[in-house]
Task: structure prediction
Amino acid sequence: MQPESRVTEGIPSTPSFFQEQSGDRLAAIRQEMEYLNTIGKRFVAAIDRFHVHRALLAALQELYGFSACCILLKEQPPELFILSCQPLSALFIEEMIQRIASAASVIDFPHIEVAQLARTAYFDAPDEGAQFRTQEAIEGTEIGSCLNIPLTVENRIIGILSLFDELVGTFDTDLLRLTTMIADYAAVALENVRLRERENALWRQAELERQRLELIIRSMAEGLLITDAQGALISLNQSARHLLAPVSYAFPLNASGMPLHQLAATSNIPWLHRLAVIMDEALAGKTVMNQELIAGESGETVPLTLSISAAPLHDVTILTTRPTGVVAVLNDVTANKQMEQLKDEFVSVVSHELRTPLTAIKGYTQHLVRRIERRIRKMREGGRDQTAPLTELPESYDLRSLSIVQSQTEHLERLINDLLDHSRVQWGQLNLHYESFHLADVLVSCVHSVQASAEQHTISLDIQGQGSKILADRSRIEQVIGSLLDNAVKYSPQGGQVMVQLRDHEDSYLVNVIDQGIGISPEQLEHIFERFYRVRNAASRQYAGIGLGLYVAKAIVEQHGGHIWLTSNQNTHGTTFHITLPHVPPPNAAREPEADPSG
Ligand code: ADP
Result:
């Protein structure tokens, strides 16, 4: 059946109609503008894409009568909306979709599968009684006319508008300009709707994130403080309020608006000053990690102790390097401190208790050794059994056994001394007894004593400089050098060279203890001076020790106003410990009051 033409049957309100009828060009232009204005308002009022479709359909229907209007949007996956104005046959719909797909391929759309487009198309029949695929749909009706117009926004194609009719010649070329204008309005309205939808989705997502974050912050066991760019508290979570509740007298939690350092200045509470300093450091752009802060009463056995980490907050949307605030996390470490204190007390008490019997064992062993030595001497000087070799005498066997007891007792004594020293360091009671001596003498005596029991090693001494006079605690310095030399020997199991160097710098001495042993890996370097730290690897397990020697050595060196550090290279093998010791300790170095020479 050849469809007949149904070209615009004089819709009275169209501008072309007025232009043709009145012949008054100016009036026609005015009317056209009014018409476009009305249509524009309808598009502006559209709140979603369905309203835009309806506005578009209504505007187009004022120009032509047609069967269907289709909008294909260039999205991923592409979205096709079919608005039917009358019942459509399945064949008609199928052909429409094919034509839309081929039109899309012409104007730079990504490849579209016709079958998929057919499956996912949205159908709409805004006109009353215009049911698609109904019984009234004339089976076998073909497309008589078709018009495709790209939908563009700022020269960017966002989709295609396709109009279809069963009759031939429906779409008048005279009305093409007007149709394109309407399509442009629709394109802008659709783009606005898309942007609004995207914005709403982003807002919804941001709001969800915000709620989630709020929930996390509220349920955090750690306290959270947030300040503004001036350092004034603007937010505290539940845990922070709880943590600071016992000290709220010092911390007016509702004093928002006042920077922390100002609050600190008006109070005489030291920990508030510390907190303000930490927050100010973070405000200056520094990240502060695990700073301990005693926030409780100083009289308490273990006062409330907080571990604080603070970091600057930056607003990525503002082009400034200055932080917009600070976020600080507070951890209550009081229970850990209590445990540590109990542990330290236990270690200290046990070490003291062990020392008493040890002193007796040492004394009596010494006494026995001397007695047996005397007896052997007497035998040698002409006693009985001249024929038996001296080594086979029962006394010689006793002497050897006793010397093992003696060396094991000394080992035990060193361990106990380390434990006692550890307690002293912990409680700040490592009292130094200063005297003037030559550092070189101490190095010489340490090298001799360690060399005596290190046959596989060659310990050499390299002393450079004018002199080595120092004011320090001699026995403590011996202890430090002894520890380093013991380690140098212990951790170079294959033997080899150990070198002790002494250099005189301007106002301090530098001592280097260099070995060719197993070395220390870079990731372990930073922990090596921590108490009870021992390198954990297959090789180190075979060496006895409890990881206190270096901890105590560091405390001793630092109390003298010096520094201790190390360099190590596992590849080339070996470790070098460096110590600097000032010629004269700085005035603030802790020391015992010197004895009054007058007696
Ligand atoms: P320890 O009693 O375990 O020797 P230290 O405090 O003296 O305790 O040393 C701590 C750890 O440092 C040791 O367990 C060891 O793993 C490592 N260490 C110390 N000195 C050396 C060294 N010269 N070479 C390699 N590793 C060393």
Summary: The first helix runs from residue 15 to 22. Residues 483, 487-488, 491, 515, 517-518, 520, 528, 533-535, 540, 545-551, 575 surround adenosine-5'-diphosphate (CB under 6 Å). Residues 1-13, 129-135, 593-599 have pLDDT under 50 and may be disordered.
